[in-house]
Amino acid sequence: MKKNNIISSASLVGLSIIYTLLVRFYDYRAVGPNDSFVGFANLNGAFHRLTKVHMTLDSITDYLGLIILALVVFYAGVGLIQLIKRKSLKKVDKEIILLGAFYAIVALIFVLFEMIELNYRPILVDGKLDASFPSTHVFLSLFIGCSAILVNKKLFKKPLIINIVIALVTVTIIVLRTISGVHWLTDIVGALLYASTLGYIYYSLISYKTKK
Q: Which of 54, 94, 159, 198, CA to CA, is 20 to 30 A from 1?
């Protein structure tokens, strides 16, 4: 990668780490259900009272999320077909190989925060506290959506229409998830930050390898 890309990537990673620490320690008080603790308590509490809870919006994002997950299956299939036809992993498009690696990173981040449970949702799920940070829907939709738009430029001659659809689905999920009230505001911001960080690094890598 270029020096500027490396610096920007490192800065985004550093910002993500600092933000995560702030969510864990800044204004960390019991304002959630069952006296569960959350960082930025005043901000999160005020935003949650403003949006309230809308389970219908939550359900809509679940269905739209299936479209996003279908993209993962699609690109995995593209990579498998290329591998079979070209009979060499080295001949599979670099964008697809890197995409698979980044999907693995996304999965690791998801598992990590399921284990850490930085904070819990502002609502109970089946009567129990549920890990909330970062918002999985927002994290997955933004990274998978943006990376799909980049990859489609390689796979399709005229990807405009499909990219517009992906962008609309991605934005809709983010907006609805934000106002649904099933996450704290900091969960949404964290997901946006993590997805943007990974997305920028992915973009920088494929741009470097394409030019190389």
A: 159
